[in-house]
Structure formats: structure tokens, C-alpha cells
Design a protein that fits this description.
By secondary structure, the protein is an alpha+beta fold. Helices cover about 45% and strands about 15% of the residues. It folds into two domains: about 140 residues; about 100 residues, Arc Repressor Mutant, subunit A, CATH 1.10.10.60.
Length: about 250
């Protein structure tokens, strides 16, 4: 399977993690997509409208029956709001066609431009960036106070790899836990606690080496888990399998 990420246009760098392209193999193919605390919008050459995929709370299996081509954008956590103009909890574990979010005219124009062009991969992705830049300029709510609070919280959670407790985070930000949770629900789509758990899980999957002799108890400690059983629980919830099985299947 072909998959490649590209850095975004500099003017989008505060909001966009990357733009990416993929092509499934010619044979039937299934791959697992893990929760990563990001939201993506995808366009595929299948004749269907583009669609946004919200924050995920567990892994999903994606099956391709033919060599589908995909062009997409991946937003940084909490930064998709200006481009979707909706509370992000409505997209959690869901997908929504982009013509419902952007309007049929704008969505159709971009889809036609992507798939009727003979331009190279990166040039097609630039068409997506151009539309995002237009929408960013039109968004009057970008950078409001609530979003700024959430960004502070996200930076703190990422810096601690999810180890910072939500109670401590609320104290640092001088807000109540309830207010913080409400802002996360709107601007991120997950609770602060679940976001932190996925941060820890991502750290654990990234730390897995190529060898068969992983010290799971040590890995759990290094990644901020209470103990090995806590690590196992999160792998089962987020990856759908125990850590060892996940390790050897990847």
C-alpha cells in the first residue's frame, strides 16, 4: 500500500498536521486504523463525496476491494473547528460527507478538481490546501478565547504524554474540571481524560521495538501506566487486542 505524508502549507501549519495521499493495493486489503487524537478529511476516487472522520475512541478495520486512491488532510488536535463550523463531539466515532459540511457546490468543485486533474500527487493536495486557506480566512471565530484555553490544555497533555492528571490540568488553567470537559467536547470531540489516555497509548505503541523480548512491565511504567494490567486494558480498548498480539501483528 502506498502512503505518503507531506508538511502543510506554512499558513496552515498551526491547524494542520499534514496532508497525505494513499493508494490501496490491487487486491482486497484490510488494515487497522488506531485512535491518534486527530481528525481527517478524505477524498477518494470512488465517485463518492469526500468525508470527514471524527476523533476515534477505538480501532477500526478498513477494507479496500480495489486500488482506491485517497487524498486527505489531517488536522492537529482541537484545530479542525474553523474548517468544519460544528461542535466536534458530533463527529466522534462518525463520518460525515463533506458536502453536508461545506455545501454541495464547494465540495463538488474541489472533488472534481482533484480527480479530473492529471497533476502530480503533491499538486493535487495543494488544491485541498487552497480551499482550507480560503475557509480559514472566512472563519471569524478562529482564535477565540475558548479555543485558546483548549490549546493550552492540549499542549500540556502532549508535553506530559498523557501523564498529567485532569485535576492538575484544571488547576493550572484556573478553570473547573466541568468547564474544561465542556470545552474539550466542543473543540476536540473527546473528554480530557480520554484524550490523555490515547496520548499514553500512542506513546506505548511508538515505544515498541522490533525485538520479541519486550519488557511489558517496564514499558507500562515508562509510558505512565499504573501497572502492566492498566497497559493491557488500554491496548484491548484502543487496539482491540492484547499488547503482545498487537506487537506481532504489526
Amino acid at each position: 500500500m502506498h502512503y505518503r505524508e507531506y508538511p502543510p502549507h506554512p499558513a496552515l501549519a498551526a491547524h494542520v498536521d499534514c496532508v497525505w495521499a494513499a493508494q490501496a493495493p490491487a487486491w482486497a486489503h484490510t488494515h487497522r486504523v488506531l485512535p491518534d487524537n486527530c481528525l481527517d478529511i478524505l477524498w477518494q476516487d470512488s465517485g463518492q463525496p469526500g468525508f470527514a472522520v471524527g476523533m476515534m475512541r477505538s480501532a477500526i478495520l478498513v477494507t479496500s476491494e480495489r486500488p482506491v486512491r485517497t487524498m486527505a488532510v489531517r488536522f492537529k488536535p482541537g484545530m479542525a473547528g474553523p474548517f468544519l463550523a460544528m461542535p466536534l463531539h458530533a463527529l466522534t466515532d462518525q463520518r460525515a460527507e463533506i458536502d453536508l459540511l461545506w455545501g454541495r457546490s464547494d465540495a463538488g468543485r474541489l472533488g472534481d478538481a482533484l480527480w479530473n486533474s492529471a497533476a502530480p500527487e503533491r499538486a493535487r493536495l495543494a488544491l485541498i490546501e487552497r480551499e482550507l486557506l480560503r475557509r480559514l480566512r472566512l472563519d471569524s471565530a478562529a482564535g477565540n478565547g475558548s479555543a485558546a484555553l483548549v490549546q493550552q490544555a492540549l499542549r500540556a497533555l502532549e508535553a506530559s504524554a498523557g501523564a498529567l492528571r485532569v485535576e492538575q490540568l484544571a488547576v493550572q488553567l484556573q478553570v473547573s474540571r466541568q468547564h474544561l470537559a465542556a470545552q474539550f467536547r466542543t473543540h476536540v470531540g473527546l473528554s480530557p481524560k480520554l484524550y490523555a489516555r490515547i496520548c499514553r497509548f500512542r506513546r506505548a505503541t511508538a515505544a515498541l521495538g522490533a525485538s520479541a523480548g519486550t519488557d511489558w512491565a517496564r514499558l507500562a511504567q515508562e509510558c505512565g501506566y499504573f501497572d502492566q494490567s492498566h497497559l493491557i486494558h488500554d491496548f484491548q480498548e484502543f487496539a482491540g487486542s492484547a499488547p503482545e498480539r498487537f506487537h506481532f501483528s504489526n
